[in-house]
Amino acid sequence: MAQEDIFKKLVAHCKEYGYVFQSSEIYDGLGAVYDYGQNGVELKNNIKKYWWDSMVKLHENVVGIDSAIFMHPTIWKASGHVDAFNDPLIDNKDSKKRYRADVLIEDQIAKFEGKIEKEVTKATKRFGESFDKAQFLETNPRVLANQEKIDVLHKRFADALNANDLEEIRQIILDYKIVCPISGTSNWTDVRQFNLMFSTEMGSTAEGANTVFLRPETAQGIFVNYLNVQKTGRMKLPFGIAQIGKAFRNEIVARQFIFRMREFEQMEMQFFVKPGTELDWFGKWKETRMSWHKALGFGEDNYRFHEHEKLAHYANAAVDVEYRFPFGFKEVEGIHSRTDFDLKQHQEYSGKKIQYFDPELGESYVPYVVETSIGVDRMFLQVMAASYCEEEVTSANGKVDKRVVLRLPAPLAPIKLAVMPLVKKDGLPEKAREIIDSMKFDFNCQYDEKDSIGKRYRRQDAIGTPFCVTVDHQSLEDNTVTIRYRDTMEQERIAIDKLKQMISDNISFTGLYSKLK
After folding, report:
1. Alpha helices, DSSP H only, in 192-235?
2. pLDDT greater than 80 at residue 387
3. Using DSSP, how many helices (H) and how many strands (E) does the chain show?
4. What is its EC number (predicted)?
5. What is the DSSP letter of 55?
């Protein structure tokens, strides 16, 4: 099945099983804004817990804050967002549609990468276990030809970005015959920069109102609280400040479901270090964050680092963690060495000293910063895309059936346990309720009595519930139940008094944390 078709099924699945809804859907929706349903909010909260605990609980020199969305407007002048927070946009004159010019070029690079992937897939089928992927990538003429195209386009694109040469970016689009997906033509306008910040007014009257911005990132709330946290927490370098919060960007070209939205949530950590040590810490956090992603068990080959072609004005090093989505490798997290730019800017614009007194050196200086920044919504989409699976299963009578299953890591699953009475009589529902009452304070449970037991299993598979328990007449006699495992569909008999411990052991975050570097 084509990856595009899989992605469409994933989007439909998210709505059907209460994960993600189009915002304001009964009013025909609001573009690039989404709501999380009853299962989606649980998964989202579990992702945030995994990140927060791995940052704050597992590092004694990292603490958390929660800063306000509204901030003094001068903050965004100091940070450079007012003058430089732009995307390069281009319009197609025939379709009247607007696109990000850089994304169009990145998609062209992805097409060349897709051709290489197709060659690898064909060769894997042809040669089987004897296939040497590394040698194939180094010697196959078609692979080498496409790799050369990627390298040439990468360099030209990077040079244009670093020179902020908008004419050259447009010329690249023309030279590579990149067309509008709607009109199919390359009748493009010039490339223009567009500021992404939302503005609003704060004040009691229109005349006395001040223009303020909805924050486009959560990092500045950390920087302006640096002194507060450092002094009240008696923090010594190196130390970090973590935050989870909403951010807002007026994305003109929002697409790919929740991958790029106008209202989204970030998980960011700013790590303050002694000047001159920032690149060492950059390397350490780069490996630490990749370890966090791989611990989820979605396949090491599905992750890669992507070095930035163009560094932001504040950075001296930057890399993205990319995941192989159904629409190609895309960024899920950024790690940046931000130097001392932010703190120095806020020191200058506020007139307040923002420095650290180093007792070992006996002097004060502005710390350097290493940032890790991950989008909750992109991480949510990554987890869903990695977990979604369609497979054929054969029943006891030999009938082949299809099941859709979300192979969510058990600690992240929104519902940990579904309890099902075999029939809705003979005291079985009451016994099932008893079990739920004994478990519900420890983890999220669901009672399910509608439809046949087979249909209920399929429904819980699609939700991603790792364990289902069936209460039958034997349960009333010996206090045992049948437990079914989502991934293997195997079933076994277990005593009810051992159920809680068994499930707790399997859904604990401890197993994930133990894999982290």
Report:
1. 219-223, 226-232
2. yes
3. 18, 23
4. 6.1.1.14
5. I
- Asked if the structure places residue 27 within a domain, the reply is no
Q: What is the mean pLDDT of the chain?
A: 91
Length of the chain: 517
Do the domain assignments include residue 22?
no
Q: What backbone phi and psi angles, to 5 degrees, belong to 11?
A: -60, -45
**Cα atoms found within 13 Å of the Cα of residue 265, Cβ hemisphere only:** 18
- Look at residues 508, 501, 495, 507 and name the one whose alpha carbon lies nearest to residue 469: 495
* Mean pLDDT, rounded, for 471-484: 94
- For residue 356, the SS3 value is strand
Tell me how far apart the terminal alpha carbons of the chain are, to the nearest angstrom: 36
Checking if the pLDDT of 208 tops 60, the result is: no
Q: Which of 396, 426, 451 finishes a domain? A: 396
Which range of residues forms the domain containing residue 105? Answer: 87-194
Tens of pLDDT, residue by residue over 322-334, are 999 988 899 999 9
User: Tell me, what's the pLDDT at 181?
Assistant: 87
pTM given for the model: 0.84
Q: How far, in Å, CA of 374 to CA of 330, rounded?
A: 12
Consecutive H or E run containing 193: strand 192-195
- Kindly state the average pLDDT of the residues 261-276: 96
